[in-house]
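hey can u check if this looks right to u? its 356 residues, i copy pasted from the old doc so theres a chance i mangled smth
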Amino acid sequence: MLPQQTDLDNDSLLLKLSLARITFLTLQEKKKFANLIDSASKLALFSIEEIQNLAGRSFSKKVIWKGQENLRMAKAALYRCVTAKIGLVFFDDPEYPEILRQIADAPYLLFYRGNVSLLAERTVSVVGTRRVTPAGRQAATQFAYEAANDGVCVVSGLASGVDGCAHQGVLNAWFDAHEKGGDAACSKLGRTIAVLPSAIDEVVPYGHKKMAAQILQTGGCLISEYEPGMNLANWHFVGRNRIIAGLSPATVVVEAPAGSGALITADFATDYNRDVFFHEATFGELADKVSAVVEHDLEARFAQGGVSKYKVENRPEKFIKDGAPVIKDYKDYCRALAEMPGTRSANIVQQKLFED
């Protein structure tokens, strides 16, 4: 929904927004509280002990609860949404994407700008490294271009590198179609959905601000679970990755050295029983050189206690050995979707990886 001026005094809406702000409550607890508490004002008066009793569990001693401050911030966020025409979709709203509702750690609230109905369309998530090679850049752009022309919406994280290329591929498809056939030609295209790690009213990285504007201009959508005005935190990036994985039945990785955030997205997709594919550009000659440099750096940092063993070992080969297919392009991706699991085990790249 796009909140109106009259919603500033809507206590039911403020209650949900207040609950969404409480990071120490689970999704199920927020849903439970929304049904049991009458208003945001009453929630603000709860003590931490009363919240614990209602949740049926004890919280960490590090948890800090300031009810009146939480209500004040919720009112401020709602005011910003009204004035900036930022939409809100709660977990129990009809507009909330069903595919995202299926994951265990789904966000209770999504803020959006643009066409939120895209979240219910056919989608594919495209992710990859910021250190993208020319081959990877071309692969991600072309894959997204062809997906858009097939009416599929492309989901990514608006980051530098592969993410930006994926969004740009869809934008290129829109501008080409508009030049050739106007709005009628564009109506058949898939659009692009950018999941932000930042507040919904900010763009990270700043250099992609123009791209974000073009996404909205071409009928796309920007979404975030972080309210307008909220400061960016490091853990927001991982939170963003789970939404990217959750919004699509399949995630395509285009170049991702060991420890890459794109592989965290692939891990989420695997956990959600979604398909994971790797573009063959991931195993190109230059991409291999980049991976070797990254792996050497990670191993050195691991030896010094700077990174976890998981980060060192989380690399594309792990997914390939577990059966993730390698694809050449969008058409090959479509073919792979229809194949039986394990059909591509004879792929040359896969054979090499198994031999290693």
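The two ends are 52 Å apart (CA to CA).
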